[in-house]
Amino acid sequence: MHAVVSSRAVRGGVRGRRARWVTAALAVAALTSGASVAVAAPAAAAQAPEASAQDPLHCPSAACSRAARNMGQPSDTALDSTGKTLYVADDSGAGTLWKVDAATGKKSEDPVATGIGSAEIALADDHTAYLADFNSDKLWRVNLDTGQKHEITTVKNPESMVLDGHGHAYVASGAGSYTLYRIDLTEEEMPEDQRKQIVTDRVGDLTGLALDGQGNAYVTDFTGGILYKVSQATGRKTKIADVPRANYIALDGHGHAYLTSRTEDGVLYRVDLTKEPGTATAEKVVTGLGNPYSVHLDHAGNALITDRTGGNVWRVSHLDGGAPPPPPPGETKVELHPVAHITAVPGGSAVPRVNVTNTGGKRIGNQDVRLKLGPEGVKWGFNVVYQDRDGRTVETPCRVVEGDPGTSLCKDVPLNLDPGQSVELRTEVGTSRGLKPCDMPSITWSIAGTSAKSDWVMKNEDGSPSRC
């Protein structure tokens, strides 16, 4: 028996972005049942030549860190005007919009909005977002202060969305229509034939979308593996380059397009848009991204890339010239990411945790760890740092620093991390019965010159969540 699985047919029957990887899952399932499987190859899938001027960056590394983690299945991000707040759309379950501190990666306790499906997000200002949901075919306006959603229109299977800054949303419609639309957002009530206009419906497996501000849209044909330029005025398309499994796009404003691709272990490609159309090659600039979807550039030119399978939002620097300079000989470099959503009851124990990642160029063995208690109401518990290794718990005792009862030093904690590896550390502290619900005590971790604060929320004495 031969089971033939078509990528196009699969996309039509499952949740949009997930269908990009469902084909492989179905093939595996068929094999385990004893059937022989022939997976239909995308028609005329292009194998792009790759420029190789330098080795690509890799995640995680000194140039690629996690801007946010444990985000479920992140499909898209948007950064506010200050660069301090990152909004992340998580399309697991019914879909949730989260607010994340862009500096620390800490996720808000409460979601900004729920029931958003598998959404793309674009900010009109720091209080207003537009969401396009592939599952419900709806385009919403969302009040970021209240989470209230207002339906604007419907678009069949929206894959990507951007705002032009002049009262229009451009939406790339995927499976079902493969159409690029221009949608008028200026009027509350408007006939659909006036609100929604077709820019082009001749792109192919339309997925990614970006505007260059000069009257052109750049779009991707995922199945064909092609980057196109489309005139916003006439809909005329021009092939720019072959890009394997070209997914989502960001433009840097300096003649380059960055495109995510789920080839290999997750790749970010760069295409030089200043070259003659059709002559540019796709240069592999980042690898190790997992299952990359959206890509955006922040105010400093760093790429923010969602890894839908790993639950990460990667932040990649040095896109313009390769890897950052290596750390000086002997230097140890780490990143610390406190684990969120920790709670405790007054008089009980809290277990603050932190993820430690080796971002340097050499292996890290033993390291001293310094712990600093937060405000009043917190005391040392067993004064031990714990970590789990190979199915067992490793304990390192700590001692209170003489003359500073709020600080403990844990000597020679065995991190044993090669470059790019991570480990989670935890400790246990006691809390005072005098703490009130919604208080946020903390402990600060310091390792190899880097510090990060873990805080937690006090619950009611009966253990029920407090309304903060």
UniProtKB/TrEMBL annotation:
Keyword Flavoprotein belongs to the record: no
Signal peptide segment: 1-40
Keywords, in A-Z order: Signal
SUPFAM superfamilies, per database record: Calcium-dependent phosphotriesterase (SSF63829)
Organism superkingdom: Bacteria
Keyword presence, Signal: yes
Full protein name: Uncharacterized protein
Organismal lineage: Bacteria, Bacillati, Actinomycetota, Actinomycetes, Kitasatosporales
